[in-house]
Specification:
The structure holds two protein chains of two kinds. Chain A is mainly β. Chain A has strands at 5-7, 10-13, 19-24, 31-37, 43-50, 53-56, 65-68, 75-79, 88-95, 97-98, 101-102, 106-107, 111-115. By secondary structure, chain B is mostly beta strands. The radius of gyration of chain B is 14 Å and the shape is globular. The chains are: A mainly beta, B mainly beta.
């Protein structure tokens, strides 16, 4: 049973370009979460999605960031017009849903975004 | 506003001894707590969790204790092994229904187990 998959593992973008990060959840998991880890900090929640629905985007910056989880295919975190402060590790996690709430979340290996 | 705090950025322990990692939280709505282990350049790996209706959960060498009145939890690793050397994150969540489930992480504690 494959774990959470993220690609690319490393992504280099120049300021002003777009970054697209992909996440395929574990088989049987229908809930996806995105987290960001800035250097020397813990992980910060960004957004929680189910298929075709954004459930909680309270951690997403108001501008330039968007996320989707289409009916078919991976979840995508999109960052438009990247700036140096977007350089971070972006982690995706997935979980099953039991009795109305999620339990443990299982993380992918992360995408390390570097903005030059 | 740091709702989950790990006040020790690092901990060094001798192989075979007990490692105790601590975590404090401020939000009384949290009802589920988790510990993750993270190696450099990898994603966090789930270790063990505990619901707020319990005060202890054990899995092999790992035991998590929850003190709700003190809003404090700890992870005990016995015996510690060099392979346990990593950064450990405490995380908390709350809520039922579709709005619940996001994890709030502490800053992490780097554990070093010396042979």
């Amino acid at each position: 049973n494959a774990g959470v998959m993220q690609n690319p593992r490393h992504l280099v973008r120049r300021r002003g370009q777009e970054a697209r990060l992909r996440c395929s959840p574990m088989k049987g998991h229908s809930h996806v979460y995105w987290y960001r880890q800035l250097p020397e900090e813990g992980l910060k929640f960004m957004v929680y999605l189910q298929k075709e629905n954004i459930i909680d985007e309270s951690g997403m910056p108001k501008e330039r960031f968007s996320a989707e989880f289409p009916k078919e295919g991976p979840s995508i975190l999109r960052i438009q017009q990247v700036v140096r402060g977007d350089s971070a590790a972006y982690f995706c996690a997935s979980s099953p849903r039991v009795s109305g709430r999620s339990y443990e979340q299982y993380f992918g290996p992360g995408t390390r975004l570097t903005v030059t | 506003d740091q709702q989950v705090k790990q006040n020790s950025p690092s901990l060094s322990v001798q192989e075979g001894r007990i490692s105790i990692l601590n975590c404090d939280y401020t939000n009384s709505m949290f009802d589920y707590f988790l510990w993750y282990k993270k190696y450099p350049a990898e994603g966090p790996t789930f270790l063990i969790s505990i619901s707020s209706i319990k005060d202890k959960n054990e899995d092999g060498r790992f035991t998590v204790f929850l003190n709700k009145s003190a809003k404090h939890l700890s992870l005990h690793i016995v015996p510690s092994q060099p392979g346990d050397s990593a950064v450990y994150f405490c995380a908390a969540s709350w809520g039922t229904g579709d709005q619940g489930g996001k994890l709030i992480f502490g800053q992490g504690t780097e554990l070093s187990v010396k042979p």
